[in-house]
Amino acid sequence: MSWNRDSLIEAARQAATKAYAPYSRFHVGAALGFADGSVVTGANVENASYGMALCAETVAVGKALSEEWRGKLEGVAVIGGKAGAVGAGDPVTPCGRCRQMLNELAALGDSDPTVWCVGEDEVLELALSALLPRAFGPDSLT
Predict the structure, then answer these.
(1) Which of 40, 62, 115, 128 could pair with 76 as two cysteines, CB 3.0-4.6 Å apart?
(2) Which domain holds residue 12?
(3) Eight-state DSSP code of residue 116
(4) Mapping DSSP to helix (H, G, I), strand (E, B) and coil, where does residue 62 land?
């Protein structure tokens, strides 16, 4: 099994269809691509207690770690939008918490993955280190 930019974006788009977002109706999907060719996806999960909501990237990282995916993270695709219009509008970028979660996973494989943030008319392509410069990570604790 292998992935490329377009297949990772499609995996994120498909993941967004599984979002549980009854309050914001803003569906987000994330797909993580690993060096071994595997892909792990996640969708946002909201809660009536808004602060307990989980972003798609956090769900994907949690899923990856709980399923023991600790290989080199090479790519991340993120897409979002209102229900029925995922991918419309501006590119969706990971929030600060998700950037930190992705950084922790990337550190396990000593990688700086490419992050594709998908919008209607553009796909931003950034290194995770550009999204989270001078990140706090496992090495910061030594």
Answers:
(1) 115
(2) 1-31+67-89+110-115
(3) E
(4) helix
Give the chain's domain count. 1
Strand, helix or coil at 20?
A: strand
Q: At 75, which helix (H) or strand (E)? A: strand 73-82
pLDDT tens figures, 13-46: 999 999 999 999 999 999 999 999 999 999 999 9
Catalytic status, residue 57: yes
Is the separation of the CB atoms in 107 and 128 below 8 Å?
no
Instruction: Give the gyration radius of the chain's Cα atoms.
Output: 14
Question: Looking at residue 134, what DSSP letter applies?
Answer: T
pLDDT single digits (tens) 80-132:
999 889 999 999 999 999 999 999 999 999 999 999 999 999 999 999 999 99
Please report whether residue 56 resides in a domain: no
Question: Chain centroid to CA 72: how far?
Answer: 15
In a domain, 45, yes or no: no
Q: Which of 10, 46, 57, 74 is catalytic?
A: 57
